[in-house]
């Protein structure tokens, strides 16, 4: 069965703040009648690393000038082998300068992923561009100037317990779902491909023709 206009991303919006996501979705009407205890942030937001020596992650939106400066100090890395960790990636790029943040995005089960790496200064970011073509794992990575900054994550929106982390690992965030598609059709679509769905929540507004969904599976697919 084909479900029109569905885009899924298990590690969605890597550079978007989870605070933005919760703020945006809290005000939207819910099409689901099922009880739902919390909004699931994308699993990407559950990741923490030790590469923020240069700044603290705070739940405050940076000013425009700060954001533009952060963009200049950030590079976009693609074609990352699935076995390459954030720790390993940061170690490789630390030869170019001090790494203050490193976030790998994408499906952890996919062969190829991408990442954003922020340096303490733009000199490090420019030096990092020379690492394009470096073999990490089994594939050469591509390194380009980033067009966006890594926004800070508010720690209070991150999972705090092992149970919450496990729940997030079984949840995907989906966008571009036609509002005319009912909840049971969305659920049957995912169950037919990915496995039994434990909970599903559709969120939309009165402006856009599409809505978003959080789908929690019984088992980690």
Automatic annotation (TrEMBL):
<dbReference type="InterPro" id="IPR035979">
    <property type="entry name" value="RBD_domain_sf"/>
</dbReference>
<dbReference type="InterPro" id="IPR034823">
    <property type="entry name" value="CID8-like_RRM1"/>
</dbReference>
<dbReference type="InterPro" id="IPR012677">
    <property type="entry name" value="Nucleotide-bd_a/b_plait_sf"/>
</dbReference>
<protein>
    <submittedName>
        <fullName>Splicing regulatory glutamine/lysine-rich protein 1</fullName>
    </submittedName>
</protein>
<dbReference type="GO" id="GO:0003723">
    <property type="term" value="F:RNA binding"/>
</dbReference>
<dbReference type="Pfam" id="PF00076">
    <property type="entry name" value="RRM_1"/>
</dbReference>
<dbReference type="InterPro" id="IPR000504">
    <property type="entry name" value="RRM_dom"/>
</dbReference>
<keyword id="KW-0694">RNA-binding</keyword>
